[in-house]
Amino acid sequence: MSTKTKDTGEQITAALIGNPNVGKTEIFNRLTGLSQRVGNFPGVTVEKKGGRFIHQGQVVDVVDLPGTYSLTAKALDELVARDFIVEEKPNVVVDIVDGTSLERNLYLTFLLMELDANLVIALNRWDLVKARKINVDLDRLSELLGAPIVATVATTGEGLEDLKSSIIKVAHDQKKSKAILDYGNDVEAGIKSISAVLNEKPDLLKRYPPRWLAIKLIERDERVLEKANSMFSGLQMAKILEVIGYE
Amino acid sequence: MNSGGSISGGSLPLAFLPEGAKATVSDIQGEKSIVGHLADMGFTPSARIMILKSCPPGAMLVWVKEARIALGRGMAMQILVNEIEEL
What CATH class has B12-84? Predict the structure, then answer.
Protein backbone atom coordinates (compact mmCIF):
# COMPACT_ATOMS: atom_id res chain seq x y z
CA MET A 1 0.00 0.00 0.00
CA SER A 2 2.90 2.32 0.64
CA THR A 3 3.62 2.21 -3.07
CA LYS A 4 0.59 4.45 -3.63
CA THR A 5 2.22 7.87 -3.70
CA LYS A 6 4.84 8.54 -1.11
CA ASP A 7 6.76 11.28 -2.84
CA THR A 8 5.79 11.20 -6.50
CA GLY A 9 3.76 14.38 -6.20
CA GLU A 10 0.69 12.57 -7.45
CA GLN A 11 -2.22 11.79 -5.19
CA ILE A 12 -2.06 12.21 -1.44
CA THR A 13 -4.26 10.36 1.04
CA ALA A 14 -5.11 12.13 4.28
CA ALA A 15 -7.06 10.37 7.05
CA LEU A 16 -9.08 12.43 9.52
CA ILE A 17 -9.27 11.13 13.06
CA GLY A 18 -10.34 12.49 16.43
CA ASN A 19 -12.48 11.96 19.51
CA PRO A 20 -16.25 11.93 19.04
CA ASN A 21 -17.81 15.41 18.89
CA VAL A 22 -14.74 17.48 18.11
CA GLY A 23 -16.14 18.83 14.84
CA LYS A 24 -14.43 16.21 12.71
CA THR A 25 -17.23 15.71 10.21
CA GLU A 26 -17.65 19.46 9.89
CA ILE A 27 -13.97 19.77 9.01
CA PHE A 28 -14.33 16.88 6.58
CA ASN A 29 -17.22 18.63 4.84
CA ARG A 30 -15.36 21.96 4.80
CA LEU A 31 -12.27 20.32 3.29
CA THR A 32 -14.07 18.34 0.64
CA GLY A 33 -16.93 20.66 -0.28
CA LEU A 34 -19.76 18.67 -1.79
CA SER A 35 -17.67 15.80 -3.02
CA GLN A 36 -18.00 13.55 0.01
CA ARG A 37 -19.53 10.15 -0.30
CA VAL A 38 -20.37 7.49 2.22
CA GLY A 39 -18.74 4.11 1.99
CA ASN A 40 -18.07 1.08 4.12
CA PHE A 41 -14.82 -0.37 5.31
CA PRO A 42 -14.45 -3.87 3.89
CA GLY A 43 -15.92 -6.49 6.14
CA VAL A 44 -17.26 -4.24 8.85
CA THR A 45 -20.26 -2.01 9.23
CA VAL A 46 -18.50 1.05 10.54
CA GLU A 47 -18.91 3.86 8.07
CA LYS A 48 -16.08 5.55 6.27
CA LYS A 49 -16.59 8.68 4.26
CA GLY A 50 -14.35 9.54 1.37
CA GLY A 51 -13.91 12.81 -0.48
CA ARG A 52 -11.20 14.95 -2.01
CA PHE A 53 -9.93 18.47 -2.38
CA ILE A 54 -7.50 20.18 -4.70
CA HIS A 55 -5.16 22.76 -3.18
CA GLN A 56 -2.14 24.40 -4.83
CA GLY A 57 -2.68 22.05 -7.76
CA GLN A 58 -2.39 19.00 -5.50
CA VAL A 59 -5.16 16.39 -5.36
CA VAL A 60 -5.75 15.14 -1.81
CA ASP A 61 -8.03 12.17 -1.05
CA VAL A 62 -9.61 12.57 2.37
CA VAL A 63 -10.86 9.66 4.46
CA ASP A 64 -13.02 10.34 7.51
CA LEU A 65 -12.33 7.66 10.15
CA PRO A 66 -14.71 6.78 13.00
CA GLY A 67 -14.48 9.06 16.03
CA THR A 68 -12.67 7.26 18.87
CA TYR A 69 -11.06 7.97 22.23
CA SER A 70 -8.51 5.22 21.86
CA LEU A 71 -7.01 2.72 19.41
CA THR A 72 -7.36 -0.67 21.05
CA ALA A 73 -8.15 -3.94 19.29
CA LYS A 74 -11.22 -4.42 21.50
CA ALA A 75 -13.70 -2.03 19.90
CA LEU A 76 -14.58 -2.36 16.23
CA ASP A 77 -14.59 1.37 15.44
CA GLU A 78 -11.19 1.78 17.10
CA LEU A 79 -9.79 -1.20 15.23
CA VAL A 80 -11.10 0.13 11.91
CA ALA A 81 -9.33 3.43 12.50
CA ARG A 82 -6.15 1.74 13.67
CA ASP A 83 -6.05 -0.81 10.85
CA PHE A 84 -6.50 1.94 8.29
CA ILE A 85 -3.52 3.86 9.66
CA VAL A 86 -1.32 0.79 10.19
CA GLU A 87 -2.15 -1.17 7.04
CA GLU A 88 -3.13 1.46 4.47
CA LYS A 89 -0.50 3.92 5.65
CA PRO A 90 -2.14 7.20 4.59
CA ASN A 91 0.41 9.86 3.67
CA VAL A 92 -0.95 12.16 6.37
CA VAL A 93 -3.09 11.65 9.46
CA VAL A 94 -5.00 14.74 10.51
CA ASP A 95 -5.69 14.55 14.24
CA ILE A 96 -8.58 16.85 15.06
CA VAL A 97 -8.50 17.87 18.70
CA ASP A 98 -10.96 19.92 20.71
CA GLY A 99 -8.85 22.83 21.93
CA THR A 100 -11.07 23.23 24.98
CA SER A 101 -10.31 19.74 26.31
CA LEU A 102 -6.70 19.01 25.53
CA GLU A 103 -6.17 16.62 28.44
CA ARG A 104 -8.69 14.20 26.95
CA ASN A 105 -7.87 14.81 23.29
CA LEU A 106 -4.08 14.59 23.45
CA TYR A 107 -4.34 10.99 24.63
CA LEU A 108 -5.33 9.92 21.11
CA THR A 109 -2.58 12.19 19.75
CA PHE A 110 0.02 10.21 21.72
CA LEU A 111 -1.38 6.93 20.42
CA LEU A 112 -1.05 8.29 16.88
CA MET A 113 2.53 9.42 17.55
CA GLU A 114 3.31 5.86 18.67
CA LEU A 115 1.84 4.60 15.42
CA ASP A 116 4.47 6.69 13.65
CA ALA A 117 1.74 8.51 11.71
CA ASN A 118 2.69 11.58 9.68
CA LEU A 119 0.65 13.93 11.84
CA VAL A 120 -0.97 17.29 11.30
CA ILE A 121 -2.91 18.50 14.32
CA ALA A 122 -6.01 20.62 13.79
CA LEU A 123 -6.71 22.40 17.05
CA ASN A 124 -10.41 22.97 16.58
CA ARG A 125 -12.87 25.22 18.47
CA TRP A 126 -10.18 27.89 18.51
CA ASP A 127 -12.92 30.51 18.92
CA LEU A 128 -14.07 28.84 22.14
CA VAL A 129 -10.49 28.47 23.34
CA LYS A 130 -10.10 32.24 23.03
CA ALA A 131 -13.56 33.01 24.44
CA ARG A 132 -12.81 30.90 27.52
CA LYS A 133 -9.42 32.58 27.82
CA ILE A 134 -7.62 29.23 27.70
CA ASN A 135 -3.97 29.94 26.99
CA VAL A 136 -2.53 27.51 24.42
CA ASP A 137 1.05 28.06 23.24
CA LEU A 138 0.70 26.56 19.76
CA ASP A 139 4.39 26.83 18.89
CA ARG A 140 5.52 25.13 22.07
CA LEU A 141 2.87 22.40 21.79
CA SER A 142 3.86 21.77 18.18
CA GLU A 143 7.49 21.48 19.21
CA LEU A 144 6.67 19.03 22.04
CA LEU A 145 4.48 16.84 19.85
CA GLY A 146 6.77 16.99 16.83
CA ALA A 147 3.91 17.89 14.47
CA PRO A 148 2.53 21.06 12.91
CA ILE A 149 -0.56 22.48 14.61
CA VAL A 150 -3.20 24.55 12.84
CA ALA A 151 -5.84 26.42 14.85
CA THR A 152 -9.25 25.93 13.24
CA VAL A 153 -12.89 26.92 13.66
CA ALA A 154 -14.82 24.29 11.72
CA THR A 155 -18.11 26.17 11.93
CA THR A 156 -16.73 29.24 10.13
CA GLY A 157 -13.97 27.66 8.08
CA GLU A 158 -11.23 29.64 9.83
CA GLY A 159 -7.83 27.98 9.45
CA LEU A 160 -9.02 25.47 6.85
CA GLU A 161 -6.80 26.83 4.04
CA ASP A 162 -3.80 26.66 6.38
CA LEU A 163 -4.79 23.12 7.27
CA LYS A 164 -4.81 22.14 3.58
CA SER A 165 -1.35 23.65 3.08
CA SER A 166 -0.02 21.82 6.16
CA ILE A 167 -1.41 18.49 4.93
CA ILE A 168 0.38 18.89 1.60
CA LYS A 169 3.58 20.07 3.24
CA VAL A 170 3.70 17.12 5.64
CA ALA A 171 2.89 14.67 2.82
CA HIS A 172 5.93 15.85 0.87
CA ASP A 173 8.10 16.09 3.96
CA GLN A 174 9.78 12.75 4.68
CA LYS A 175 10.61 13.76 8.24
CA LYS A 176 8.74 11.59 10.71
CA SER A 177 7.43 12.71 14.05
CA LYS A 178 10.33 12.30 16.46
CA ALA A 179 8.71 12.98 19.81
CA ILE A 180 8.25 9.90 22.00
CA LEU A 181 6.52 9.42 25.32
CA ASP A 182 8.92 8.06 27.95
CA TYR A 183 7.17 5.41 30.09
CA GLY A 184 9.84 5.31 32.78
CA ASN A 185 12.67 2.88 33.51
CA ASP A 186 10.67 -0.31 34.11
CA VAL A 187 8.59 -0.14 30.94
CA GLU A 188 11.42 1.25 28.82
CA ALA A 189 13.60 -1.72 29.86
CA GLY A 190 10.81 -4.05 28.73
CA ILE A 191 10.48 -2.21 25.42
CA LYS A 192 14.22 -2.60 24.91
CA SER A 193 14.22 -6.35 25.59
CA ILE A 194 11.27 -6.93 23.27
CA SER A 195 12.79 -4.74 20.56
CA ALA A 196 15.85 -7.00 20.60
CA VAL A 197 13.62 -9.94 19.67
CA LEU A 198 11.67 -7.88 17.12
CA ASN A 199 14.92 -6.95 15.39
CA GLU A 200 15.26 -10.58 14.33
CA LYS A 201 12.34 -10.02 11.91
CA PRO A 202 13.35 -7.04 9.77
CA ASP A 203 10.41 -7.46 7.35
CA LEU A 204 7.98 -7.10 10.29
CA LEU A 205 9.68 -3.87 11.33
CA LYS A 206 9.31 -2.53 7.81
CA ARG A 207 5.54 -2.95 8.04
CA TYR A 208 4.94 -1.84 11.61
CA PRO A 209 6.55 0.78 13.86
CA PRO A 210 8.97 -1.17 16.14
CA ARG A 211 8.30 0.81 19.31
CA TRP A 212 4.54 0.53 18.77
CA LEU A 213 4.81 -3.27 18.38
CA ALA A 214 6.81 -3.53 21.61
CA ILE A 215 4.33 -1.37 23.55
CA LYS A 216 1.34 -3.30 22.20
CA LEU A 217 2.99 -6.58 23.20
CA ILE A 218 3.50 -5.28 26.73
CA GLU A 219 -0.18 -4.26 26.77
CA ARG A 220 -1.02 -7.78 25.58
CA ASP A 221 -2.94 -6.40 22.61
CA GLU A 222 -4.81 -9.38 21.15
CA ARG A 223 -4.13 -8.62 17.50
CA VAL A 224 -0.43 -7.95 17.94
CA LEU A 225 0.03 -11.02 20.17
CA GLU A 226 -1.68 -13.13 17.50
CA LYS A 227 0.60 -11.72 14.84
CA ALA A 228 3.68 -12.32 16.98
CA ASN A 229 2.57 -15.90 17.67
CA SER A 230 2.28 -16.58 13.96
CA MET A 231 5.63 -15.03 13.06
CA PHE A 232 8.03 -15.87 15.86
CA SER A 233 9.57 -19.17 16.83
CA GLY A 234 8.84 -20.79 20.18
CA LEU A 235 12.13 -19.55 21.55
CA GLN A 236 11.51 -16.00 20.37
CA MET A 237 7.98 -16.00 21.85
CA ALA A 238 9.40 -17.34 25.11
CA LYS A 239 11.73 -14.34 25.25
CA ILE A 240 8.79 -11.98 24.67
CA LEU A 241 6.58 -13.71 27.24
CA GLU A 242 9.40 -13.53 29.75
CA VAL A 243 9.07 -9.74 29.57
CA ILE A 244 5.29 -9.35 29.33
CA GLY A 245 4.43 -12.28 31.59
CA TYR A 246 2.44 -15.42 30.92
CA GLU A 247 -1.31 -15.22 31.36
CA MET B 1 -5.52 1.08 40.22
CA ASN B 2 -6.74 -2.50 40.21
CA SER B 3 -7.17 -3.19 43.91
CA GLY B 4 -8.47 -6.34 45.49
CA GLY B 5 -12.10 -5.58 46.21
CA SER B 6 -12.58 -3.81 49.51
CA ILE B 7 -13.91 -0.28 49.39
CA SER B 8 -11.52 2.11 51.06
CA GLY B 9 -12.58 4.85 53.45
CA GLY B 10 -15.07 7.34 52.01
CA SER B 11 -15.16 5.81 48.54
CA LEU B 12 -18.38 4.59 46.99
CA PRO B 13 -19.39 3.21 43.60
CA LEU B 14 -20.17 5.91 41.05
CA ALA B 15 -23.48 4.12 40.42
CA PHE B 16 -24.72 5.21 43.86
CA LEU B 17 -24.40 8.93 43.15
CA PRO B 18 -27.53 10.96 42.37
CA GLU B 19 -27.90 13.38 39.46
CA GLY B 20 -25.89 16.54 39.97
CA ALA B 21 -23.39 14.90 42.34
CA LYS B 22 -19.71 15.69 41.83
CA ALA B 23 -16.80 13.43 42.70
CA THR B 24 -13.23 12.40 41.99
CA VAL B 25 -12.27 8.92 40.80
CA SER B 26 -10.37 6.99 43.50
CA ASP B 27 -10.15 3.51 42.01
CA ILE B 28 -11.42 1.27 39.24
CA GLN B 29 -12.03 -2.37 40.02
CA GLY B 30 -12.33 -5.32 37.69
CA GLU B 31 -10.50 -6.97 34.85
CA LYS B 32 -7.51 -5.24 33.32
CA SER B 33 -9.29 -4.77 30.00
CA ILE B 34 -12.25 -3.00 31.66
CA VAL B 35 -9.96 -0.80 33.74
CA GLY B 36 -8.03 0.08 30.58
CA HIS B 37 -11.18 0.83 28.62
CA LEU B 38 -12.56 3.09 31.35
CA ALA B 39 -9.21 4.89 31.55
CA ASP B 40 -9.35 5.42 27.76
CA MET B 41 -12.76 7.04 28.27
CA GLY B 42 -11.25 9.44 30.81
CA PHE B 43 -11.87 7.64 34.12
CA THR B 44 -8.33 7.96 35.44
CA PRO B 45 -7.24 8.36 39.09
CA SER B 46 -8.38 11.69 40.55
CA ALA B 47 -10.32 12.64 37.40
CA ARG B 48 -13.23 14.92 38.33
CA ILE B 49 -16.68 13.77 37.30
CA MET B 50 -20.29 14.91 37.56
CA ILE B 51 -23.48 12.88 37.20
CA LEU B 52 -25.57 14.47 34.44
CA LYS B 53 -28.30 11.85 34.32
CA SER B 54 -29.04 8.69 36.21
CA CYS B 55 -31.85 6.29 35.40
CA PRO B 56 -31.73 3.49 37.99
CA PRO B 57 -31.48 0.63 37.44
CA GLY B 58 -30.34 1.54 33.92
CA ALA B 59 -27.58 3.62 32.40
CA MET B 60 -26.08 6.88 33.56
CA LEU B 61 -24.59 9.87 31.78
CA VAL B 62 -21.39 11.20 33.29
CA TRP B 63 -19.38 14.35 32.64
CA VAL B 64 -15.66 13.59 32.65
CA LYS B 65 -12.81 15.59 31.11
CA GLU B 66 -15.08 17.87 29.09
CA ALA B 67 -17.08 15.03 27.54
CA ARG B 68 -20.33 13.22 28.29
CA ILE B 69 -19.89 9.47 28.63
CA ALA B 70 -22.77 7.00 28.94
CA LEU B 71 -22.12 4.11 31.30
CA GLY B 72 -24.02 0.94 32.04
CA ARG B 73 -24.85 0.47 35.72
CA GLY B 74 -22.48 -2.50 35.92
CA MET B 75 -19.50 -0.45 34.79
CA ALA B 76 -20.56 2.41 37.04
CA MET B 77 -20.37 -0.03 39.99
CA GLN B 78 -16.71 -0.70 39.20
CA ILE B 79 -15.67 2.94 39.40
CA LEU B 80 -15.05 4.06 42.96
CA VAL B 81 -15.30 7.75 43.74
CA ASN B 82 -15.07 10.27 46.55
CA GLU B 83 -17.83 12.85 46.59
CA ILE B 84 -16.78 16.51 46.49
CA GLU B 85 -18.66 19.80 46.83
CA GLU B 86 -17.21 21.69 43.86
CA LEU B 87 -15.60 20.59 40.59
Answer: mainly beta
